[in-house]
């Protein structure tokens, strides 16, 4: 529905108010805990109640700030009552302390941020007793050795607020937060969310909704007390990141379905709005609002809220396959960060300028994002943005992991979701048979089990091509989490080197297998999984012709072609294994028998609004021990994928696990 700029703002305000009012029936008597229905997180119901309060308070903070304190629903009074009760150690509704519950540290940052934004209407009107209680509850953050990822900013923001409010803070803490963040900056606007195995490998939505957001708000809270030059440094980094982020939103309004904490949904807008608020964006104001509108409407139209207007745990629908152990009923309200735009006054250009097209609607594009190790392709005809992933896998390079489907797949998009069968929040054994399928390159053992990919060694990202390598392994328990999955036994197999060339809707995916062949393995390459209508779901099993095709419920088409030495094709059907629908299907191709080592195998992988009109032409050749695939695209463009052999001396010199070749 087309809305005027004024109507847009009103629509956002109504949506925010509806979300805030919907949680009130689930609050305790004095409002300190919002105990939403659903399966508790591993932190327990009281922590989840604090999470419900803190994250909705953040939304209320943005709503009040942009309205200049106008408050028809008494947001200030309602949340002030909760602050008084939650920080009173003698109150039955008291919040857990940081010593009792680590998750309370996360929520403290939302509370501090909201208090800063609403200072004239809440903090300044609290009586001295309550202000003292709040600062006492925040005080144990000082000196806390926070985990080495975005969590350090919960400390930074909390102590910054305490410093401005007469509470406890420590310069060493703030210096450490700034220094760690600089160490995690990987360039081109991208942060790794901490280091894994001493490397920058953690690229996902936290780059926007945490690693860019909190540093700038830290400077906003401290004002003139912020270190000289820090604000400008953070603004420059965000401006560069937004050059890439604007490409990673589909015409359907969806952000990339990749990484952890996907249930935060609209929070993917946090960095875009923050760029506008801090004058740190290359986007026109009309483009910022266009992306925001499209994303808000996307999630609204696809069931992000239930009949009671509560945000659900999932993506389009309640779905536990994209959750983590820390996900509780209040977790989805991190989406409050997607409403930062309401903190801007109605006369700001983002609320007055006319909307523009999204990047993917203007023209087709292909980009290499070298820092995260991604190739990106957007096509205007269908509005799809695809990412081919040869970079960050959120894993320790020194040991094998079970594959997290949201990090380890070779491709992600704005219109599809990876297959995530089972409930990874249930702990070890919950997804023991969750083998990689879609957008995976695997070896099948004698029992038909698929190998896993993590950790990945990046070899190259250049133009429209990228190459990476991993060692095939079969974990005894395939249950995943972003941090490596449960400790479990693992059978090691050969090395798999995969190269991609991406243009338009088609990826050329080339594979070589090297190392001890053992008893032999079938090579299987998976295409894009699509949600399908359950009544018309395709029949699973083999299909003729070396090509497999799926048409999704939304009309998208997924095709995989066994272009070279992959003659067998089939469809694999899933039930309740995909965030976008209750039924799904994935096309795959395989070798006829055990894969031959040291030679190239090639699949063409398509995702688009229609079947591909013309496929690229491929030829193969060798250059010493390197296998080359020359690709000629329908428009005449040419690419070469280079698949080097693993270093034959490496296993003898360094042991059997990590391949450091061009790491």
How does this model look, in words?
The chain is α+β, with helices and mostly antiparallel strands and 663 residues long. It is 27% helix and 22% strand. It contains 15 helices and 22 strands. It has helices at residues 5-23, 45-66, 75-86, 103-117, 128-138, 152-164, 171-184, 206-222, 230-245, 270-277, 285-301, 349-352, 359-362, 405-408, 650-654, and strands at residues 185-187, 190-191, 365-369, 374-379, 384-389, 411-413, 441-444, 457-462, 465-475, 490-503, 506-514, 522-526, 530-532, 541-543, 547-551, 557-564, 568-578, 581-590, 600-608, 617-623, 626-632, 638-643. The chain has a seven-stranded antiparallel β-sheet, with no helix packed on it. Strands 7, 12, 13, 14, 17 and 18 form a six-stranded antiparallel β-sheet that branches. A hairpin with a 5-residue loop joins strand 15 and strand 16 (557-564). The longest helix has 22 residues, at 45-66. The chain is globular and about 75 Å long. The chain starts with a helix and ends in a 9-residue tail after the last helix.
Structural class: alpha+beta
**Given the C-alpha coordinates, what overall shape results?**
globular
**Biggest sheet overview:** 7 strands, antiparallel
Lateral arrangement of strands in the main beta sheet: 8-9-10-11-19-16-15
Query: How far is the N terminus from the C terminus?
Result: 49 Å
| Multimerization state | single chain
The number of helical runs is: 15
């Amino acid at each position: 529905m087309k809305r005027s700029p004024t109507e847009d703002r009103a629509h956002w305000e109504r949506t925010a108010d509806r979300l805030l009012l919907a949680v009130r029936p689930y609050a305790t008597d004095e409002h300190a805990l919002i105990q939403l229905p659903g399966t508790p997180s591993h932190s327990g119901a009281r922590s989840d109640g604090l999470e419900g309060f803190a994250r909705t308070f953040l939304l209320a903070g943005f709503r009040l700030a942009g309205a200049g304190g106008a408050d028809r629903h008494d947001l200030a009074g309602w949340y002030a009552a909760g602050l008084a009760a939650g920080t009173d150690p003698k109150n039955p509704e008291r919040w857990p302390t940081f010593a009792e519950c680590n998750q309370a540290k996360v929520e403290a940052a939302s509370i501090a941020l909201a208090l800063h934004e609403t200072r004239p209407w809440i903090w300044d009107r609290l009586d001295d007793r309550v202000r003292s209680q709040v600062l006492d509850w925040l005080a144990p953050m000082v000196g806390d050795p926070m985990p080495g990822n975005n969590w350090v900013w919960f400390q930074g923001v909390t102590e910054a607020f305490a410093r401005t409010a007469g509470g406890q803070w420590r310069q060493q803490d703030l210096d450490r937060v700034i220094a760690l963040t600089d160490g995690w900056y990987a360039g081109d606007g991208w942060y790794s969310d901490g280091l894994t195995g001493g490397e920058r490998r953690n690229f996902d939505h936290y780059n926007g909704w945490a690693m860019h957001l909190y540093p700038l708000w830290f400077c906003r809270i401290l004002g003139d007390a912020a270190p000289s030059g820090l604000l400008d440094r953070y603004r420059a980094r965000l401006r560069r990141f937004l050059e890439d982020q604007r490409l990673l939103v589909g015409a359907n309004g969806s952000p990339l379905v990749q990484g952890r904490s996907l249930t935060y949904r609209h929070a993917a807008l946090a960095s875009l709005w923050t760029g506008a608020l801090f004058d740190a964006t290359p986007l026109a104001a009309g483009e910022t609002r266009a992306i925001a509108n499209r994303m808000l409407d996307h999630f609204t139209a696809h069931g992000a809220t239930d009949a009671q207007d509560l945000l659900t745990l999932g993506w389009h629908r309640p779905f536990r396959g994209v959750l983590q152990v820390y996900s509780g009923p209040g977790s989805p309200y991190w989406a409050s960060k997607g409403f930062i735009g309401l903190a801007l006054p109605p006369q700001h250009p983002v609320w007055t300028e006319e909307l523009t097209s999204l990047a993917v609607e203007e023209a087709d594009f292909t980009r290499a994002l070298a820092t995260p190790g991604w190739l990106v392709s957007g096509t205007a005809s269908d509005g799809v943005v695809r990412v081919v992933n040869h970079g960050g896998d959120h894993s320790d390079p020194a040991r094998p992991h079970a594959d997290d489907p949201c990090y380890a797949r070779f491709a992600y998009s704005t219109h599809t979701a990876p297959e995530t069968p089972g409930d990874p929040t249930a702990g070890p054994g919950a997804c023991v048979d969750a083998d990689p399928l879609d957008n995976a390159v695997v070896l099948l053992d004698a029992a038909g089990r698929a190998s896993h990919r993590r950790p990945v060694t990046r070899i190259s990202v250049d133009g429209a091509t990228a190459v990476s390598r991993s060692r095939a392994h079969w974990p005894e328990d395939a249950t995943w989490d972003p941090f490596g999955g449960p400790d479990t036994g693992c059978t090691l197999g050969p090395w798999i080197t995969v190269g991609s060339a991406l243009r338009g809707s088609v990826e050329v995916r080339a594979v070589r297998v090297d190392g001890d062949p053992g008893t032999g393995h079938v090579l299987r390459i998976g295409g894009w999984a699509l949600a399908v209508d359950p009544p018309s779901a395709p029949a699973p099993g083999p299909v003729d012709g070396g090509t497999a095709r799926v048409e999704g419920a939304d009309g998208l088409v997924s095709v995989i072609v066994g272009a070279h030495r992959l003659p067998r094709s089939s469809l694999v059907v899933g039930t309740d294994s995909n965030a976008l629908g209750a039924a799904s299907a994935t096309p795959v191709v395989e070798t006829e028998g055990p894969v031959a080592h040291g030679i190239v195998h090639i699949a063409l992988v398509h995702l688009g609004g229609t079947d591909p009109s013309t496929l690229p032409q491929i030829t193969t050749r060798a250059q010493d021990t390197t296998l080359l695939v020359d690709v000629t695209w329908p428009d005449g463009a040419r690419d070469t994928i280079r698949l080097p052999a693993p270093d034959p001396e490496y296993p003898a010199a360094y042991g059997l696990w990590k391949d450091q070749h061009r790491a």
